[in-house]
Automatic annotation (TrEMBL):
The protein's name: BRCA1-associated protein
Cytoplasm listed as a keyword: no
SUPFAM superfamilies named among the record's database cross-references: RING/U-box (SSF57850)
PROSITE patterns linked to this entry: ZF_RING_2 (PS50089), ZF_UBP (PS50271)
Length: 486
């Protein structure tokens, strides 16, 4: 976040100023592409440099993956490879540690961007000899950057590198590629005999042994960071230009030359320190100046002393005391008083306008709050009423259902009562019929017993006695029958 957005346009250079990644045979765009076989190579555009100052663009001619394998190496290969799609969270030191012992066989490394891949970068590596290049290719091809990484290392042989041009975005004279002949860390010359030279994405060069001690991914010279933060927007208007972030609460607002939401935040909260996201400089609203004694130049990204007086001086005379000695002192005082009065009137009118503006904002906010509250209350009442109506309809349906069930149960009760009564009547009739049958059977049994006894008596007694007994029996039977008839 604290990486500066300024850089110079120096590239990976040799001590004599010649760029090692620009072949001497390349004079203009198209010379290399015409001499290459399109079925064996692929053209990959790239760029490097600070986008705000100077951006160098070019094309890498890489052998295709099917043309370069671990078994069949390209015939026209050179001691130059490209590591594609390196995760952006890997710093320069992380990549040097990933390369391990191969760093001592490298001549130069250059960090470049691939078009359309903001979260990744590529590394062009030139080795001292071809055998080291082949060993590096076989060892790191398909190897994961770490045990936690999903993506594997993509290493391709590079046939040539062609620079197509440079786009300057800053005004003034930019630093040329021959200015940086010493490493900014150890202050020694960038001599290849002392070890590999690593050129960062902002075109500054260092010894690999020096840059490997750098903790983050920012450049030690210009503080330009390869890990660019996510684009922020103003919390009020949503613009992404001229943004300032409050270092007290983190509120993001646009500058005074846009819509002034950052300075409005200071007036509302009295948080007087704000950081400009583009230049990483802190502004003090109370003192109306930057808090830094040193700032970075927009032309070359180097630290320079900030001249507060020059920054706020007039374009014509600046902060000097030059003037026409022939001007009368009274005339000068009258002009000064007129200017002071005009300034006071202007300041008063601006403050009055600001007061009216903020009062209108407060009134609008109050009316908006009242409208929102009314809408919210009406919405809540309607929602509550709708829920109550739904609940009432549900209870009414349940009541109707219960009433229908009760009515059906009552009807069933009457029906079952009638059926029970019929069953009881049938049971009573069946009992009476059974009693009558039992009584008849008893009478028949009694008659049968008497008949049997009479027959036995006839068989055992003489006829006279039998006739008397028969008479007695008849009398008895007649008496019994008469008594039953009664």
């Amino acid at each position: 976040m604290f990486a500066a957005m300024f850089a110079a346009t120096t590239s990976g250079i040799r001590p004599d100023g010649e760029d090692a990644f620009i072949p001497s045979s390349v004079c203009k765009q198209g010379d290399v592409s015409q001499s290459l076989a399109p079925d064996l190579t692929q053209a990959v555009p790239f760029s490097s440099g600070n986008p705000r100052i100077d951006e160098t663009r070019g094309i890498m001619y890489l052998f295709r993956e099917d043309a370069s394998s671990s078994q069949n190496l390209p015939v026209d290969r050179k001691p130059l490879v490209c590591v594609l799609a390196v995760p952006n969270h890997m710093t320069y030191a992380d990549f040097c540690r990933f390369c391990g012992s191969f760093v001592q066989h490298m001549a130069e490394m250059r960090i470049v961007r691939n078009d359309g891949m903001e979260d990744q970068y590529s590394v062009l590596i030139r080795f001292n000899d071809q055998s080291s290049t082949d060993s590096f290719f076989k060892h790191f091809r398909g190897k994961r950057f770490s045990s936690l990484e999903v993506d594997a290392c993509q290493v391709l042989y590079t046939l040539d590198v062609e620079y197509t041009g440079s786009i300057e975005h800053a005004q003034g004279t930019l630093a040329s590629s021959t200015e940086q002949v010493n490493c900014a860390v150890c202050l020694e010359r960038l001599d290849q005999d002392d070890g590999a030279i690593l050129t960062t994405i902002c075109n500054h060069s260092f010894h690999c042994s020096c840059i490997s001690k750098w903790a983050d991914s920012s450049c030690p010279v210009c503080r330009y960071c390869q890990q660019q933060p996510d684009k922020s927007t103003c919390s009020v208007c949503g613009t992404s230009e001229n943004l300032w972030i409050c270092v007290i609460c983190g509120s993001v607002g646009c500058g005074r030359y846009k819509d002034g939401h950052a300075i409005r935040h200071w007036k509302e909260t009295q948080h007087c320190f704000s950081l400009e996201l583009e230049t990483q400089r802190v502004w003090d609203y109370v003192g109306d100046n930057y808090v830094h004694r040193l700032i970075q130049s927009k032309t070359d990204g180097k630290l320079v002393e900030l001249n507060f007086h020059g920054a706020h001086a007039d374009d014509t005379c600046g902060s000097c005391n030059c003037g026409d000695s022939g001007i009368d002192e009274a005339l000068f005082n009258s002009k000064f008083e007129a200017i002071l009065m005009e300034y006071n009137d202007l300041l008063t009118s601006q403050l009055e306008n600001q007061r009216k503006y903020f009062e209108s904002l407060l009134q609008e906010a109050k009316e908006e709050d009242e409208r929102e509250i009314s809408k919210a209350v009406q919405k809540a009442v309607n929602l509550r009423l709708q829920k109550l109506k739904t609940k009432l309809n549900k209870h009414i349906e349940e009541k109707r259902f219960v009433e229908d069930i009760n009515e059906n149960l009552l009807k069933n009760q009457e029906t079952w009562k009638a059926k029970i009564q019929q069953i009881e009547e049938r049971e009573q009739a069946a009992v009476r019929l059974k009693d009558e049958k039992i009584q008849k059977l008893e009478e028949q049994l009694q008659n049968l017993i008497c008949s049997i006894e009479a027959q036995n008596a006839v068989d055992d007694n003489p006829p006279s006695q039998v006739s008397n007994d028969i008479k007695n029996v008849k009398i008895t039977l007649s008496g019994s029958s008469s008594s039953r008839s009664k």
